[in-house]
Amino acid sequence: MGLGQRETGLGRREQTESAERFTEAMSRLVSGVAVVSLRGADGRPCGLLVSSLCSYSVDPPSVLVALARSSRTCRELGTGAGAAFGVHLLARTDAALARVFAGSAEDKFADALWEWDGEVPRLADVPVYVKCRADALFPHGDHVIVVGEAVHCVLKEGEPLVYFHRRLDWRLGRALPGPPD
């Protein structure tokens, strides 16, 4: 076996079926959604929508986010040590904004209300904004896991936008869909 390879005991077909089944299983995990933003090397804001995020530590206060390696935001973060970035937890009313940041537009901030918070692009009117400094990065698979130490938090009221079963508009309290046939 070569470096980076591991014995799985699964053939290519089983791996594909396993990945599809895993993706379906994880689509049933209710998660919040957030926009991660930072200033690119060209000075322009960049950002993307993430659903893989969580509180990581209280001491020091930290968040953990997973960024797709293929994203401009991840590439701009680079090695990341000390890089400033923002985490914006979205409200249920922010579904359209979430779709923009989930897309591949060159300038996702073009129609968004935002301002600079030092070197971090900060979206306006989101329920939670956390300004962070990247403390650690861990490449894994097609993502990079980033641990960011929170340096400033802004809180407002708002019902959260959640992601469930590949939908951004799912609301707590709705009936869950049945299992696939």
From TrEMBL:
GO terms for molecular function: oxidoreductase activity. It is an enzyme of class 1 (oxidoreductase). InterPro entries: Flavin_Rdtase-like_dom (IPR002563), NADH-dep_flavin_reductase (IPR050268), Split_barrel_FMN-bd (IPR012349). It comes from the Bacteria. The keyword Oxidoreductase applies. Keywords: Oxidoreductase. Its EC number is 1.-.-.-. Pfam families: Flavin_Reduct (PF01613). Residues 26-170 form the Flavin reductase like domain. This is Flavin reductase family protein. It comes from Streptomyces chengmaiensis.
